[in-house]
Amino acid sequence: TKRVFSGIQPSGGLTLGNYLGALKRFADSQNSGVQSIYCMVDMHAITVWQDPDKLKRATRELCAGFIASGIDPQKSILFNQSQVAEHAQLAWIFNTVARMGWMKRMTQWKDKAGKNQENASLGLFAYPALMAADILVYHATHVPVGEDQKQHLELTRDIAAKFNHDYGVDFFPITEPVIEGAATRVMSLRDGSKKMSKSDPSDMSRINMTDDADAIASKIRKARTDPDGLPSEAKGLEDRPEARNLVNIYAALSDQTVDQVLAEVGGKQFSEFKPMLGELAVSKLSPISSEMARLMQDQSEIDAILRHGAAQAREIAAPILARTYEIVGMVR
Ligand code: ATP
Ligand code: MG
Fold it and tell me: Binding of ATP: at which residues (predicted)?
């Protein structure tokens, strides 16, 4: 049976990239009848330094972001990772399955560790093994993610396959990535070769889901572009990453294809298109951010949702972990 898992790190405030690459897709697929498990991956977040008070706030705000984006905690399981110990327990097993060479090839490791790899945390290096555990501890068959996580998902498949092979079992499923539609990769507003990210030091590089209308309009107005106008078909954007990014965002926010958008706006200058994009972004994001603010007023309700979700998650994870220990040869 089909089961969906996806996670988001409480490593800062949510961005438009998280919304279009993750939250909006989750909400859009909610009524497909498939069991979905969504996790605030706080244990991933601490692979780079997080201030403890900010981590708590970001976790609750992330939960509010899920709900405000339309994910219903009655229909989907919503919880934070550290409340379900099975993730860390299975991750340890996977640390012994994954190979150093596999981890060293991960572009997220290279990007986030930067030049000083010696000084990066061991957890940052092992991140993909924990992510594999997040997914496989539920035997999830499908993982909707942005394109930036595709390589990690391939590693999850490699870990599942190697485990099955090493122990001579057919136990862990080979999970399918679900990556489709426009804007599976939203790029930085300052640099079309970098993805938009909540941990980017420059706030001007991203649109935060909690930005007000003025901030959104001004960030889009200042977004980097080239001097040309908009083409009338998608192939006219090929060597223009910044221009393509803005059109992609417009398409994703308005549920259109890039060609549909260009049929409408082709020939316009960016001075005319940017205010249109700003207005569209504000109209989509402001109802979500005001709902987030409302939810954040009652912390105890958010905490209760996370606790309830964690209990539901544990019911699925515990027998899968127990069976894994049995396969590996741990005496119980
Ligand atoms: P960090 O900078 O701390 O890694 P992030 O913004 O990359 O934060 P994650 O928590 O790593 O966010 O990812 C959460 C989800 O959002 C994942 O499904 C990921 O694929 C998606 N996502 C993140 N950034 C983008 C982006 N720029 N475009 C599309 N999807 C994205
Ligand atoms: Mg990321």
Answer: 9-11, 17-18, 146-148, 186, 195-199
Q: Based on the number of CB atoms within 10 Å of its own CB, is 114 exposed (0-12), middle (13-18) or buried (19 or more)? A: exposed
Domain locations in the chain?
Answer: 3-178+298-328, 203-294
Q: Is 150 in the pocket of ligand 1 (CB under 6 A)?
A: no
Is 216 in contact with 278 (CB distance < 8 Å)?
yes
Task: Take atom 23 of ligand 1 and give the residue whose Cα is closest.
Answer: 18
Q: Is 112 a catalytic residue?
A: yes
195 is catalytic: yes
- Specify whether domain 203-294 bears CATH 1.10.240.10: yes
pLDDT confidence of residue 180: 75
d(CA 130, CA 137): 10
ipTM exceeds 0.95:
yes
Q: Are 143 and 175 in contact (CB under 8 A)?
A: yes
Answer yes or no: are the C-beta atoms of 166 and 97 closer than 8 Å. Answer: yes
Ligand 1 in reach of 195 Cβ (< 6 A):
yes
Task: Round to whole Å and give the CA distance between 136 and 130.
Answer: 10
Q: Supply angle C-alpha 197, 208, 255, rounded to 5.
A: 90
Answer yes or no: are the C-beta atoms of 220 and 269 closer than 8 Å: no
Phi-psi category of residue 222: left, alpha or beta, with phi > 0 → left and psi -120 to 50 → alpha: alpha
Which CATH number applies to 3-178+298-328: 3.40.50.1110, 3.40.50.300, 2.60.120.200, 3.40.50.620?
Answer: 3.40.50.620
State the distance between the two ends of the chain, measured CA to CA, in whole angstroms: 29
Share in percent of the chain as helix, strand, coil (round to 5) = 60, 10, 35
Q: What is the pLDDT of residues 60-92, one digit of tens each?
A: 999 999 999 999 999 999 999 999 999 999 999
